[in-house]
Amino acid sequence: MHVHGPASPGWLLVALCAATGAYCLLRMRSPVEEQRRAAGGEALMGFGMAAMAVPAAVFAPPSWAWPVYAALFSAAALRALWTARRSPHHVHHLLGTAAMVYMALVMAASPGHHHEHGGSGVPLVTGALLLYFVGYVLVSGVRLVPVSATAAGTGSVGWGDRPELARACRLSMGIGMVAMLLTL
To answer: How far is residue 10's CA from residue 58's CA, in Å, rounded to a whole number?
Structure first.
């Protein structure tokens, strides 16, 4: 999703998503298998969002890049669909990867400029995704309310396994997703 307009907000989005992806890679070293699995999918999302958010004035990807993004995130969506039957958190991963597929397809159909959908206003899919991710960001922000150190058990948990850092990571990606959807 190449951010249209001034390059500075686009670079901030790239930095946010890349930093989130890097932190998620570090979380993959967790001794907890579920943490590793979730962190891997989140790292893919973070780096994928960073790549898609590079300002178009700096780098316009070749026309074949968007179908590659769509294929990559379709595979990630299938994996999220498979794992969603065990864990409701993976439903969010499914929606995130589906949003990435959608954005890649929109950009493939209309590279380098805003995509018009034949009328005025926000297309239905974009609007539905925006509603979901805005709600997700608001709920995730509330969940970041500080928890007492004894309740969080921070004395025995490594920094890569701290739940508040994982929540902050997911919140960052949710904010990034809202910003990217707004550019459609």
So the answer is: 10
User: How many CB atoms sit inside 10 A of residue 1's CB?
Assistant: 26
Q: How many domains does the chain have?
A: 1
Domain assignment present for residue 162? The answer is: yes
3 band by pLDDT with thresholds 50, 70 and 90: very low
Write down the pTM of the prediction.
Answer: 0.80
90 is a domain residue: yes
| Domain of residue 106, residue span | 7-182
Asked if residue 2 belongs to a domain, the reply is: no
User: Can you tell me the distance from the alpha carbon of 181 to that of 46, in angstroms, rounded to the nearest whole number?
Assistant: 15
For residue 71, tell me if it sits in a domain: yes
Both tokens of 16, joined, read 């946010």
pLDDT of residue 118: 46
* Distance, CA of 73 to chain centre: 11
Residue 5 has pLDDT above 90, yes or no: no
Any residues with CB less than 8 A from the CB of 143 and at least 6 apart, and which?
167
Q: Taking Cα atoms as reference points, which of 10, 9, 17 lies closest to residue 100?
A: 17
